[in-house]
């Protein structure tokens, strides 16, 4: 399966997908570590990691309140 990130608004509305897919979970997480600030500037509030169509986990890109 290919790993990818679904990009979402705070209310869960999808706003897109990562431009690339990844062969491993570690590669996908490394990409997020390098790009999360740019995603926030682009008004992405949270991301969901997908393994193919299966949701692995989601997380906010904002600091905890």
From TrEMBL:
Domain of life assignment: Bacteria
Species: Actinomadura darangshiensis
The name this protein goes by in its record: DUF2188 domain-containing protein
Lineage per the UniProt record: Bacteria, Bacillati, Actinomycetota, Actinomycetes, Streptosporangiales
């Amino acid at each position: 399966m290919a790993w990818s990130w679904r990009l979402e608004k705070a209310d869960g509305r999808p706003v897109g997908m990562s431009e690339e897919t990844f062969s491993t979970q570690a590669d996908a997480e490394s990409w997020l570590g390098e790009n999360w600030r740019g995603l926030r500037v682009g008004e992405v509030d949270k991301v969901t990691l997908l393994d193919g169509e299966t949701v692995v986990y989601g997380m906010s890109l904002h600091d905890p309140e």
